[in-house]
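dumping this here before i forget
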Amino acid sequence: MDSCKFQKGSQSESKKRSANLGDKNDLRIKAIGHGTVIDHITPGQALNVLNILRVNGNFTNTVSVVMNAGGSRGDKDVVKIEGRELTEKEVNSISLISPKATLNIIRDFEVVQKRQIQKPESVCGIVKCINPNCITNSTEPVETRFVVTEDEKVKSLVLRCVFCESVMTEDLIKFIE
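structure:
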């Protein structure tokens, strides 16, 4: 992709630039040489994806975020991270909040792998159980483990704790820090 060039200039120069874009004021984000692009994220979930990936003010790689952008499959969010490929645990975490996202691995400015994020059958050590009496919330060193299913009626993911059988929907998911 071309990068968007912001130039200082007069209002007439600004109007000329807008006229050159036609009626579409597309913002182009600079292509990344090596890293990951997460596309088709559920609208409004990009910041949660950044939280899962532990991207904060101390993160030094270039990160681009687009929220509520129109796409061929409807509105979407997009996250680009320079110099980083995701772990399977991170991908599984993202699948819980955005099961229809796509993952693109970029090397030397080329997409070398593109895949739809798949809902895992189970997740371990990612999500905190909502039951305060669950053994995973005690002082015992027990890693959380959930079976992941989909509620066909409401088209939502459901997580069931294998230890206490507590059931959580997407809106109740709390990730382990």
